[in-house]
Amino acid sequence: MTEPVLQVDLPGIPKIKSGKVREIFDLGDKLLFVATDRISAFDCVMPNGIPRKGEILTQISYFWFEHLKCILANHLISSAGDPLPPELAEFPQLAGRSMIVKKAKPLAIECVVRGYLAGSGWKDYQRTNGISGVLLPNNMKESEMLPEPIFTPATKAETGHDENISFHEACKLVGREVAVAVRDLSMRIYQNAAEYALKRGIIIADTKFEFGIFNNRIILIDEVLTPDSSRFWPADKYQEGRSQPSYDKQFVRDYLETLDWNKQPPAPSLPPEIVAKTQQKYLEAYARLTGKPL
After folding, report:
1. What pLDDT is stored for residue 158 in this prediction?
2. pLDDT of residue 42
3. In this predicted structure, what is the pLDDT of residue 33?
């Protein structure tokens, strides 16, 4: 197995942000997004990564951006097969894991759509009988399919957890007109993608989208419908009333739950078998969605 790319620095090119997974560089009139192989869980970045994970995430995003462009414009300037521009050609570590994108102004909310009762949504439901102020039927089970998908926005936390908020609170953050627009777009994108993925054996239980403003228009930005931003379940193993096997990093979370770890930094290293199995799950998600191996 190749060594994971955990850090990316490009001498002479300013880095403007380093997230849990992505590094963002300023190319003047555009941005360079680089997905590393870092993996986080419970808001902690693991000390060792998943080899090729950044490449898988980037190529899945390229796939979905192309698939969804009939619904909404996106921030891509580069295409999946494009060679690196001359100023970046000396950095071979960028190959396959980079996107050159427009400088959009990100909205201040995460746009989450849920089709099933899982994760923080399941915890909210147990406490309030709803999610983000959306009331749900009584006596629902973990992982149960919702009567219809729901929009549950969240705040963007630079550190710690994103917080689920009501649609009313989202309107206060971005304005009602914009909130209504991204809610409706999020629902259309989710339903389109969920139908597509189900034909390929994957349930998209929930996902989050990011939108930005570019030339006074709303566009789709960041990553889209990856195993990092979504809950992907194998359809043939789905059974309501329990946690599901997954193609996403839930596998890592489930392993970490078996440890005597308080979910505070420093995070423990992942053993080789967990690293290998996680990479296999991400690669399988890519192959199922696109119909070809990476």
Report:
1. 61
2. 87
3. 97
Phi, psi dihedrals of residue 6, rounded to the nearest 5°: -100, -20
Domain 15-101 has CATH 3.30.200.20: yes
Long-range contact pairs involving 16-24 (C-beta distance under 8 Å, separation at least 24): 20/45, 21/54, 21/57, 21/228, 22/223
Three-state SS for the chain is CCCCCCCCCCCCCCEEEECCCEEEEECCCCEEEEECCCCEECCEECCCCCCCHHHHHHHHHHHHHHHHCCCCCECECCCCCCCCCHHHCCCHHHCCCEEEECCCEECCEEEEEEEECCHHHHHHHHHHCEECCEECCCCCCCCCEEEEEEECCEECCCCCCCCECCHHHHHHHHCHHHHHHHHHHHHHHHHHHHHHHHHCCEEEEEEEEEEEEECCEEEEECCCCCCCCEEEEEHHHCCCCCCCCCCCCHHHHHHHHCCCCCCCCCCCCCCHHHHHHHHHHHHHHHHHHHCCCC
> Domain map of the chain by residue range?
15-101, 105-248
At 1 the pLDDT is: 67
Q: Which CATH number fits domain 105-248: 3.90.79.10, 3.30.470.20, 3.40.50.2300, 1.10.150.450?
A: 3.30.470.20
Q: Express each pLDDT in 165-201 by its tens digit.
A: 999 999 999 999 999 999 999 999 999 999 999 999 9
Residue whose structure tokens are 């955990």: 6
pTM of the model: 0.94
Per-residue confidence at 159, pLDDT binned at 50, 70, 90?
A: low
Beta bridge partners of 208: 112
CA distances from 186 to 161, 197, 279 (A): 21, 16, 28
